Amino acid sequence: MSLLAVAGLTKRFGGVVANRDVSFDVRPGELVGVIGPNGAGKSTLFDLITGVLRPDAGDVRLDGRSILGQRPDEIACLGVARTFQKLRPFPEMTVVENVMIGAFQKTSDVAAARAASLRALEAVGLADRAEAYARALSTGQRKRLELARALATGPRLLLLDEVTGGVDQATVPALVRLVRELHARGLALIVIEHNMRVIMEIAERIVALQLGEVIARGTPSEIMQDRRVIDAYLGEAWRA
Ligand code: ADP
Ligand code: MG
């Protein structure tokens, strides 16, 4: 059975159809990639899955049960965590305090939240910055902090929105390694990623979006050869 099933999701913002009849599923422990040009509806899809937005039509099922209409914190408690494309740590709080915000979704015990947060910081390689102010972090470190905050909720399914986006090229391999490690530990992931080389390398299956619609679904090699994907997204540079 699938861990997550997205069925016929549609979301409109005025005249813009950000998601139109989007369907796919994620099996336990699977890493599914989501690709598509800017404005394709990728971040909106995450908002719909995590309860930030309510769809106009369609359903989101976790373990076969609909989670539609549940609040983001309730969905987090069920084991679905996500990172945001736009980073927004609290700059005047320490790194570990920022991560504890995630941990408090699972526990109200301060010591337990702190312990879980330090473990999450350890997992992302940021433990040595635990007591630094968040404002002192580089973009790559902020990405790790955002990841730790999501991990501290103890997810079964983790949604990553452009985790390598906006970081300098030298930082990308370490972030990719981290994602691979989380996957190797059995975590299921949905990864929005602009770097084609990265997504082709790490994803087991890929969903390609364009203007809110699924234009292709398949293994990386199937996606790489898909005419609609090549035309819509990858363009001449890829073909060459
Ligand atoms: P992506 O993450 O693939 O770049 P988004 O999901 O952010 O795409 O956006 C999909 C479309 O929906 C875009 O046309 C965007 O302008 C629009 N959109 C997203 N969020 C909102 C919103 N809160 N209000 C109005 N339009 C939105
Ligand atoms: Mg986006």
Explain this structure to me?
The chain is α/β, with parallel strands linked by helices and 240 residues long. Helix content is 37%, strand content 25%. It has 9 helices and 10 strands. The strands form 2 sheets. It has a 6-stranded mixed sheet with strand order 6-7-8-3-9-10, sandwiched between helices. A 4-stranded antiparallel sheet has the order 2-1-4-5, with helices on one face. Helix 6 (172-184) links the parallel strand 7 (157-161) and strand 8 (188-192). Helix 3 (95-103) crosses helix 4, helix 3 runs parallel beside helix 5 and helix 4 (110-123) packs across helix 5. The mean pLDDT is 93. The structure holds adenosine-5'-diphosphate and magnesium ion. Residues 42-43, 85 line the site of magnesium ion (MG).
